[in-house]
Specification:
1 helix, 43% strand, Immunoglobulin-like, alpha/beta, 3-stranded mixed sheet, 17% helix, single chain, binds copper (II) ion, elongated
Length: 125
């Protein structure tokens, strides 16, 4: 065999291995729900978006960035209470395994409007 042919064979083998490796990627943790990635921001005194709608069974990945100061994200129904450091995107993951409407709120006192800094998660059955 001449050299170019060997290189081509080696390249083909590499491509085959790469394709095989991609095909072996583990399936999503739950076969039922989809992964829902939602970007949010938090600032005095609102979350944006402040209404989140997902489907029951979805694996929810919230990526929240506090813009103006530290805030918090508290979603009691799913046992979540996470501090959000200003400027650092914080990832919060959970599985929406029950249907309904669940309030969330800021859990880090951030000023006179803190008590009004809230939103809701709607999990559709
Ligand atoms: Cu607050």
């Amino acid at each position: 065999m001449n050299r170019p042919k060997i290189y081509l064979l080696a390249l083909a083998a590499l491509v085959a291995v790469a394709l095989w490796a991609m095909a072996q990627e583990p399936a999503a943790p739950s076969a039922v729900g989809n992964v829902r990635e939602i970007q949010m921001t938090a600032k005095k005194y609102e979350f944006n978006p402040n209404v989140l709608t997902v489907k029951k069974g979805d694996h929810v990945k919230l990526i929240i960035t506090a813009l103006d100061r530290d805030h918090g994200f508290k979603l009691d129904a799913f046992g979540i209470n996470q501090k959000l450091k200003k400027g650092d995107p914080t990832t919060i993951e959970f599985t929406a395994d029950k249907g309904g409407t669940f309030p969330f709120q800021c859990s880090e006192f951030c000023g006179f409007g803190h008590g009004k800094m809230k939103g809701k998660l709607i999990v559709e059955e």
